[in-house]
Amino acid sequence: MSTTFEQLKLLISQMDILVSVHGYDELANDNLTVSEIIDSAASGTVIEDYPDYHKGPAVLLLQNDKNSLPVHVVWGIPKGQSRPAVIVTAYRPDVKLWSKDFKRRLKK
Q1: Is the pLDDT reported for residue 1 higher than 80?
Q2: Among residues 10, 31, 69, 71, which is most buried (max CB within 10 A)?
Q3: Is 103 helix (H, G, I), strand (E, B) or coil?
Q4: How many CB atoms lie within 10 A of CB 48?
Q5: What one-character-per-residue DSSP string does 29-80 give?
Q6: Measured between alpha carbons, how far is 64 from 51 in angstroms, rounded to an integer?
Q7: pTM of the predicted model, to two decimals?
Q8: Residue 40: which residues within 8 A CB-CB, separation 6 or more?
Q9: Residue 12, C-beta contacts closer than 8 angstroms, at least 6 positions apart
């Protein structure tokens, strides 16, 4: 289990959340809402864990939108801080770049 994801789930449950500017742009590009990303975060699956990322610990989650379609979301916690949970980016995974279950990157 990812320690980062556990910390993020607690912050999300407390609604201690920030959406990055890039995150808002990417949500808009894929017609996603912040609320549907927040609502499905706790049931997300950790695809990649970045506990030592230079901007702070982060995870790539496979989540679902309101129509149960797959969405990848990078959640992070700012370096040197314990809060908030930050939606760094969110996007619909490209079938050409990911396995059929969207859990593994395909080799180029």
Answers
A1: no
A2: 71
A3: coil
A4: 15
A5: HTT--HHHHHHHHTT-EEEEEETT-TTS-EEEEEEE-TTS-EEEEEEE--TT
A6: 23
A7: 0.94
A8: 63, 64, 65, 71
A9: 38, 41, 42, 75, 85
